[in-house]
Write a structure and sequence with these properties.
single chain, 296 residues, alpha/beta, Rossmann fold, 6-stranded mixed beta sheet
């Protein structure tokens, strides 16, 4: 039987032309909500176990990036997949519009600062890819970056964006050399599904706080965003930093797929508990003897 959650079905691991219109926004049959929840719980348990080994080893790290259109379920995917993971070994960051300080540096600066330390799983909700996504759709945002050689942000051409893709590829290749394993998820939601979720945020008082009228206005640029995502994914996918285009119309499908990818990646890292030196082992024997002699 075909494994509908197999990571290979969603992975883009080499530079190529990507057309998001050809990718499904929901799984094609075979798994109901119960099956998806069971798969998620099984993979979560394994992720929790592997995260402890990653943390104890302290040699490598995992960077998980989530990108998506508004209301695609980034936050719920993070909460459901990483719920139960030891907070000491997991660092979750959500990137908003850059601050005035961040705008005085290159576009990768704040993201380089947020790379997870060895032994840590880093989770980024939005990332350096915003600079070739929302900024590409709204080039006027470049004015705030005061870039040399860019007198008119509205006139930047393909060469400018190709240079940014190259900077991103170089950055991710460098991280991979330093022991950072990178997984990039694009939660692929259809326009109709987004409308339904935005309406939920308007109609449900408990979800009103999530609603931003700007999200509705951005829907008018849906086609521009789909092209920007297609181009960014196609220009930056690599074996060291693959993209996963994950169906996102149904959130339980998204969560189950993301958990499976992360679990299999952690297993592929061949993580091991640190080996003790002869001196450390001798210390264990001595400590056991001393504890054994104590009177309760």
């Amino acid at each position: 039987m075909k494994d509908l959650l197999a990571p290979s079905l969603f992975r883009v691991n080499k530079m190529a032309r990507v057309d998001l219109a050809k990718y499904d926004t929901r799984l094609e049959g075979g798994l109901d909500k119960k099956d998806l929840k069971e798969s998620l719980e099984k993979d979560k348990a394994r992720i929790i176990e592997l995260q402890e080994t990653l943390y104890a080893g302290g040699e490598r790290s995992l960077l998980v990036i989530f990108q998506a259109m508004d209301a695609a379920g980034k936050d719920s995917a993070i909460a459901n997949v990483f719920g139960g993971v030891n907070p000491q070994g997991c660092d979750v960051r959500s990137f908003k519009a850059p601050s005035s300080e961040e705008l005085t540096h290159d576009f990768l600066w704040r993201h380089a600062k947020a790379v997870p330390a060895r032994g840590i799983i880093g989770v980024h909700s939005r990332s350096h890819y915003e600079e070739v996504l929302v900024v590409k759709v709204h080039p006027e945002y470049l004015a705030g970056q005061r870039l040399p050689g860019v007198p008119d942000p509205m006139k930047v051409d393909g060469t400018f964006w190709e240079a940014r893709y190259a900077s991103i590829r170089d950055f991710e290749t460098h991280l991979a050399r330093q022991g950072v394993t990178i997984l990039k998820f694009f939660l692929h939601m259809g326009k109709a599904a987004q409308k339904e979720r935005l309406m939920e945020r308007i109609e449900d008082p408990k979800k009103n706080w999530k609603f931003n009228v700007g999200d509705v206005k951005e829907r008018a640029l849906w086609g521009d965003y789909q092209r920007a995502y297609s181009e960014a994914i196609g220009a930056t996918a690599s074996p060291d930093a693959p993209w996963y285009i994950v169906p996102a119309d149904e959130q339980w499908e998204t969560r189950a797929i993301v958990a499976r990818v992360i679990r299999e990646q952690l297993e592929a890292m061949d993580l091991r508990m640190p080996a003790l030196s002869a001196k450390a082992k001798a210390g264990l024997v001595e400590a056991k003897e001393l504890l054994g002699k104590e009177r309760n």
